Amino acid sequence: MAENLEDEIRENAKGPAKASGDAGSVEQHKLTDQIAADKHLAGKNAVAKPHRGLRFNKIVPPSAG
User: Hey, is 59 helix, strand or coil?
Assistant: First the structure.
């Protein structure tokens, strides 16, 4: 589903914001809403990764020996 939404955002960005004709008029979602949805999806993808962007390392200072 995430891939489909990303494709829809791309298609909406390419198309016009408003269109009107004999059958009626059409208006798409605002670009800011589409960007927010894209950020939300990117966050969901980042959380799904096993390391989630964090890595813990143990730092051991060299011995004085």
Answer: coil
- The whole-angstrom separation of Cα 42 and Cα 48 is 10
CA–centroid distance for 45 within its chain = 8
Beta partners for residue 27, in sequence order = 18
Query: Over the stretch 7-58, which tens digit does the pLDDT of each residue have?
Result: 777 777 777 777 888 888 888 778 787 788 788 878 887 777 776 667 788 8
3-class SS of residue 27: strand
Pick the closest to residue 2 from 65, 47, 50, 52 (CA basis): 47
Residue with tokens 């494709």: 7
Contact 31, 14 (CB under 8 A): no
Q: pTM higher than 0.70 for the full model?
A: no
Query: Do 13 and 34 contact (CB within 8 A), yes or no?
Result: yes
